[in-house]
Design goal:
Elements lengths: L2 H14 L7 H7 L4 H12 L3 H19 L4 H7 L5 H12 L3 H7 L11 H4 L6 E4 L4 E4 L4 H15 L2 E6 L7 E6 L2 E6 L10 E8 L2 H11 L5 E5 L7 E5 L4 E7 L4
Parallel strand pairs: 2-5, 6-9
Antiparallel strand pairs: 1-6, 3-4, 4-5, 7-8, 8-9
Helix pairs in contact: 1-2, 2-3, 4-6, 4-7, 9-10
């Protein structure tokens, strides 16, 4: 089972058990991972911490129940894991912008937070796949010289292709590069430091040699490098490169 399906299976498990206690260890077991690695991976891929995702789903469902049913508010609070009406009301008001009673009495609009479908935010299969498959933007340089160095770095790491180099409104150089069909904008920020982190997403490789080469390049002067060997993904790395971009890379295994 590949990593995408493992994450989705864990999300499906959350949905099926949303009214019950959900421990990170139990959820992670659905993805064949430790709780630590699953929570780290979930945040990178889904762009939201696991606990916040569960909380938002419960509050979204609770809001729908309040507006569309006559179920007692206290019963709805208990159903979604809140031990007191006060704690539920605080969380509900923060999420929806209105109190539970106001939402029911006025049939007010509530905020919806849909179940995540990993395949809808991740790309298809290829030798090297960047997830999620939408344009990324990194502010990773302070001047024109540095931004050219950044492009050269990612060209070595991923074989990036330069699509455009331009200077809008007489400001400074911008570069749009393409990595396996993904357009990435490299921008400048005069106050840039590598503490301003960006998510580079999840990358999956069919070719182990290409994966090792990418890991080697990204690891040069990296802020942090973690390498792991998981049962289904023997080659696995989480790297915050020298420009503050966090990449999760692994080899594809479908068995």
């Amino acid at each position: 089972m590949d990593m995408v399906n493992c994450i989705q299976r864990a999300i499906d498990f959350i949905e099926d058990n949303i009214n019950h206690e959900l421990k990170p260890e139990t959820i992670a077991s659905q993805a064949l991972m430790s709780a630590f690695h699953f929570q780290r991976l979930f945040s990178i891929v889904c762009n939201i911490p696991l606990g916040e995702y569960i909380r938002n789903r419960r509050l979204s469902l609770a809001g729908n129940d309040i507006v569309t049913t006559d179920e007692k508010i206290i019963d709805i609070a208990l159903k979604y894991g809140y031990e007191s009406p006060e704690s539920f009301s605080r969380a509900f008001s923060k999420f929806h912008g209105v109190s539970p009673m106001m939402a029911r009495n006025q049939k007010r609009h509530i905020n919806l937070f849909a179940k995540i479908s990993v395949k809808s935010i991740l790309g298809g299969n290829s030798n090297m796949v960047n997830y999620p498959r939408y344009s990324l933007g990194f502010n990773v340089a302070r001047n024109d010289k540095e931004i050219l160095e950044v492009f050269d770095f990612y060209q070595k790491a991923f074989g990036a292709k330069k699509l455009a180099e331009f200077v809008p409104y007489n400001t400074h150089i911008h570069i749009i590069m393409e990595i396996n069909g993904i357009q990435v904008l490299l921008n400048q920020d005069k106050d840039w430091t590598n503490e301003k982190r960006h998510s580079g997403g999840l990358w999956s490789y069919d070719n182990d040699d290409d994966l090792r080469r990418t890991i080697d390049v990204l690891s040069q002067d990296a802020i942090n490098v973690e390498t792991h060997s998981w049962e289904h993904w023997p080659i696995n790395a989480i790297i915050i490169d020298k420009y503050g971009v966090e990449w999760l890379l692994h080899n594809n295994r479908t068995e």
